[in-house]
Amino acid sequence: MRQLTLTPDDHRIARLTAAAIAIALVESAVPSPLPGVKPGLANIITLLVLLRYDWVTAAWVTILRVFAVSLLVGQFLAPGFVLSLGGAIASLLVLYLALPLVRHLPAWFGPITLSLLAALAHMLTQLLIVRLWLVPSPGVWVLAPVFIGAALLFGTLNGLIVAWLRVPDAVQP
Amino acid sequence: MCWCVTVNWFLQRPLKHLLRPGDVLVLLAGFAGWLALSISLWQSGPAAQAQVRRDGILVAAYALNEDRTVSIDGALGATVIRIESGRARVVSDPGPRQYCVKQGWLTRPGEMALCAPNHVSLSLTGGQPAYESMAY
Fold first, then answer.
1. Which value does ipTM take for this structure?
2. What is the pLDDT of residues A73-113, one digit of tens each?
3. Which CATH number applies to A8-167?
4. Taking CB atoms and an 8 Å limit, are B26 and A117 in contact across chains?
5. Are residues B78 and B28 in the same domain?
6. Is there a contact between A158 and A115 (Cβ–Cβ < 8 Å)?
């Protein structure tokens, strides 16, 4: 009989993913004025995991969350799922590149930098997918400032939340 | 100042611990990029050219400063396009629902009339004219 051994890492990833799924599900029930504009609060979990553990764990948690939420919401393999997955992969790649900045210069760059860069990468990738695949018209770019403005706003807010949650570790009173 | 104190009270932690100098730089760079993008995308001058596409491929382009009527062969038949005093419209189309005809005159760059059944589209683009003024 073949045995599947679960490492402590697997348990940790499962726990963190569950938290991210819960946040993303609650968020998906909140109506949005414009399709595609949402706070992306589940990415707070991604950033916390990235800063507390490592990039690989954060990538697992994020990708698993995208799959699980799309299955639960019922849009697995639908355009919305492709957009989510594309955005998630792009922001993970950007986080991989930006992480050394935060690790080596913690006095200069914090969670807000990571959150902003990830949010922008997410939004730009989604716009690119929409432009190339869903709406092949240059008119898509007319809406780009709205989406990128939303990414800036929510990227900053999520980064602030992450920074706020991490303050007790970082700053001694 | 006052705003910062309020936010600090709300967060119960000094904002400067949360927002580091590099974060501010990234935020400002992002905001500057966003501003530049908004200005470049939403600043629309007058329309200069009418582009006609068949199956998404550009088949003809006409300057809007010359009045003319053209006929484009599509999948179902001829789509007739009228260009007049800096605007353009679809005059007639063999499509069943006539959406692109009912749309009327297109005046601003980026506007588009899509005659989908006939695979023909008419769109306006901006672009600078060859010269802006003439000096004597």
1. 0.81
2. 888 888 889 999 999 999 999 999 999 998 998 888 989 99
3. 1.10.1760.20
4. yes
5. no
6. yes
